[in-house]
Amino acid sequence: MKTMFFAQAVDDALAQAMADDPRIILLGEDTPLLRRNLLVRFGPRRVRGTPISESAFLGAGVAAAMAGLRPVVEIYMVDFLGVCMDALLNHASKVETFSGGQWTAPVVVRVPCGGGYGDGGQHEQSLWGWLAHIPGLTVLVPSTPADAGGLMLAALQQDGPVIFLEHKLLSEIWLEFLGSGARSTVQFDVPAEGAKSAVPKKWEPLPIGKAALRRPGSDLTIISVGVGVHRALDVARSLEAEGISAGVLDLRTVSPLDKAAVCETVAKTGRLLVVDEDYEGFGLSGELSAVILEAGISCRYARVCVQTTIPYARNLEEEILPNRQRIYAGVKHLLQ
Amino acid sequence: MPGDLWFLYSVMLRSRLFEEAIAKLWHEGLISGEMHLGTGEEAIIAGVVAHLREHDAMALDHRGTAALLMRGVDPVLILRELLGYADGLCGGKGGHMHLFSKEYLAASSGIVGAEGPTAAGFGMAAQYLHPGAIAVAFFGEGAMNQGMLLESMNLASVWKLPVLFVCKDDGWAITTQSEKVKGGDLSERARGMGVPVMEVDGCDVSAVWEVSHSALERARSGEGPTFLHARCVHFEGHFLGFQLIRMVRDPLREIPEIAVPLTRSFLRPGGASLGERLAGVKTVLGAALSTLRDPRRDSANDPVRRARTTLQVDSLRLQELEDQVEEEIRRAVTSSLGEVPS
Question: Are A316 and B92 inside 8 Å of each other by CB?
Fold first, then answer.
């Protein structure tokens, strides 16, 4: 069985797509260094370093996509999208509607996200809810190497803008670059299955907007994305000993949301716990409750999310991220 | 009037020793996340900060520790912040990229270029609330490609804001050589917006002190902003643990880790022509070679050493001063590592 690290899988799928489609180019800050393996195979014309000018190169990526290229624009961290949000908010997402459906901007924005390595709240946000709020943007949050590669391929075939979020605890490249700096004196709570696991021999695109039931369960459903999926699975496994059957649904795609899968599994268990590393208010967790209510499903509901700015100190950070203790407490609350 | 080199040397040395202590704690795993040191840029910070007074403000980048220390913030408070303790400068919630001191009107940001709008805003507030007070923005030359910084320079120009824009130019934008991503000349950009320019050797603390003195006097008297372009080197590159520097320092360990996947990818079928692939290899090798030839290996580029050379004429006084600074930092580190607050 072939296994890969998370970022290795993304790069491998990207390489497969780049070999097939000369319209795909990569650009971003430090990209020639960070994607040097792609640089020496596809050359500097297709793997380009940019100045620290996010508004310019993301905006240019959007327009280049409109004009026929398939740019993959890398932004250092999702937090830094704040600098260049206009390109996504007012342009990439609007082209299709404004052109009466005649024109789209098939740009892929590859961005690391998430916390758990002590960099503080300006570098560890998730923000997928904030992005998914905007109609016209597709938002992907893979949790395993196999999904990461398959969804990257799907993103490159999508006829519109896609935000591809890569959790830094899962990505071996980012965790070393930003977290450890090659130190052996720091440890991170990395989900093993998410960081390295089985991948297909040849990459096939995964369907966008399709959730994966990671674990069936009859007493309650935990819904999550990214690292939260692995935390939820850990808790679900430990609950077995207590005779509690907890299912875990991995959304994989935040927008479009797999409403059918959400409704189906929640209708069965009657209890929903949302585990979301993004902010609690006005986001994915609330959206899921709306989906359930709109479908007329009656269920008990609780959520474990991030409620504040992520503090720098590792112990404080650990407390506010959706950790196993908080998830366990959430489950217990629902089963009361 | 030249600055007092003894004083400037002592604050630079204090900062250097302090940051070396931080590096050690980071390597020991006691400080988390990234760590961007200002070792190498001390002369720029010291030469500017020495002029600051009450109500003056600072907009700092992700490398703001030295500026805060030189401005007067207690080193124990800073260290305990970096260690993530509740009694640190920001309650352990900010960390080194997000250090804030309301007392000294100093705000840091990990967003490149954000120092521009912040300094403009501090300068604008000074015009209303404390005429004669100024704001300083410290940023790298990589930030000069960021729209918000250039917009701020224009704003400061048209509103005659009392701002000193200090560009600490080490030639590297994160881990990319600035030459490859920069069009034209940085000083010309400032001039083009009507902001006067002062070029200075950022390794010469007296020179920095002198030019910033006149630029700040200009700002205080309501004549508007100045762009201070100072060249320097960062001894640790963009941040601690930067792979290219690791490669230079420990090639046997690092090179195979980079070279094996690189070679495999280079040889894979499907992709660019051989010429394009070789151009890619050249880019990678170029970055590695430029790190090898790096000016940070030349002690003439060490501002602390340079100041020391001049002061060696009075070796007794020098020794006394160095002992005193070393002792102070040693005490600050010991005290910071003391009791963990509950």
Answer: yes
With an 8 Å Cβ cutoff, are A122 and B287 in contact?
Answer: no
Chain A residues close to B262, C-beta within 8 Å: 36-37, 40
Residues of B numbered 74-93 whose beta carbons fall under 8 angstroms of chain A's beta carbons: which are they? 84-86, 90-93
Most distant CA atoms of chain B, gap in Å: 68
End-to-end CA distance of chain A: 43
Residue B22 and residue B222 in contact, taking contact as beta carbons nearer than 8 Å: no
How far apart (Å, rounded) are the C-alpha atoms in residues A134 and A285? Answer: 16
Cross-sheet strand order for the sheet of B135-140 = B100-101, B106-108, B57-60, B135-140, B163-169, B226-231, B197-201
Task: Say which of B32, B239, B284 has its CB closest to residue A36.
Answer: B284
Q: Which of B108, B301, B288 is nearest to B203 (CA)?
A: B301
How much is the ipTM here? 0.94
Question: Which residues make Cβ contacts (< 8 Å) with residue B184, sequence separation at least 6?
Answer: none
> pTM for the whole thing?
0.96
Q: Please spell the DSSP secondary structure of A296-336, one letter per residue.
A: T---EEEEEEE-SPPPSSHHHHHHHS--HHHHHHHHHHHH-
- Alpha-carbon separation of residue B215 from B153, B164, B212, B222, B252 (angstroms): 15, 7, 5, 11, 48
Fold of A212-335: Rossmann fold (3.40.50)
User: B5-235+302-336 architecture in CATH?
Assistant: 3-Layer(aba) Sandwich (3.40)
Sequence ranges of the domains in chain A:
3-198, 212-335
CATH architecture of A3-198: 3-Layer(aba) Sandwich (3.40)
The per-residue pLDDT for range B80-104, each reduced to its tens digit, is 999 999 999 999 999 999 999 999 9
Nearest CA in chain B to A50: B181
B147 at interface of A, judged by CB pairs closer than 8 A: yes
Q: Which residues of A touch B98 (CB under 8 A)?
A: 120-122, 312
Q: Do domains A3-198 and A212-335 have the same CATH topology?
A: yes
Question: Which sequence positions of A are flagged as catalytic?
Answer: 123
SS (H, E, C) B68-92: HHHHCCCHHHHHHHHCCCCCCCCCC
Position B145 scores a pLDDT of 97
Report whether pLDDT(B340) > 80.
Answer: no
User: Using one digit for the tens of pLDDT, what is the confidence trace for B269-311?
Assistant: 999 999 999 999 999 888 888 777 766 667 789 999 999 999 9
Domain ranges for chain B: 5-235+302-336, 243-295
Range in A109-123, A158-172, B256-270, B279-293 with the lowest mean pLDDT: B279-293
